[in-house]
Amino acid sequence: MANSNITIEKVALKYGFYTFAGLVGYFLIMYMVGLAHIIELRNLNLFIMIPGLWFALNYFKENSNSHLNYFEGISVGTLTAVIAAIPFSIFMFFFMIYNVDFMMRIKETVPFSQYVNPYIIAFIITFEGFISGVMMSFVLMQYLKKKHEGSAA
Fold it and tell me: What is the pTM of this model?
């Protein structure tokens, strides 16, 4: 059922917020069990970001009045990822400002630690979110394209 009120921005805002909540939840769980300082665990954020993008793309595809083309799909996915990444980077920025011990543990584990501060980490989180959003949106659009072609036959 198509809805004329569905826009890329509304879908991205809704699913970006859900994804942001998932990222914060995952971080807080890792922090409570004492694993948040292990930088490599951030790779598991993909298991939060991919479903967020998938649900956003699927929702837009099922509820918009238009056929989901590549530009719209990548726009929905990228905007969803950015909307999740920016508040998450702000959350992490303030977390590191107020939790100096955590910031020091991060500095101990990264190269070029003399350049690492909450501002740099917040920028990196936002940049990673943007780039991963573009890449994952492209990959997911390949899958949705195959799924659409299979259902049209």
Answer: 0.87
In 3D space, the residue among 113, 16, 105 whose CA is nearest the CA of residue 57 turns out to be 16
The pLDDT of residue 72 is above 60: yes
For residue 1, is it within any domain? no
Assess if residue 3 is contained within a domain: no
SS3 label, residue 117: coil
How does pLDDT run across 3-48, given as a tens digit for each residue?
A: 668 889 999 999 999 999 999 999 999 999 998 888 788 888 989 9
CA distance 39 to 146: 35
Distances (CA, A) of 85 to 7, 43, 82: 20, 14, 5
Q: Which residue spans within 20-145 are E strands per DSSP?
A: none
Give the pLDDT confidence of 94-114 residue by residue, as tens digits: 999 999 998 888 888 878 878
State the total domains in the chain.
1
Does residue 149 carry a pLDDT above 60?
A: no
Domain that holds residue 58: 8-152
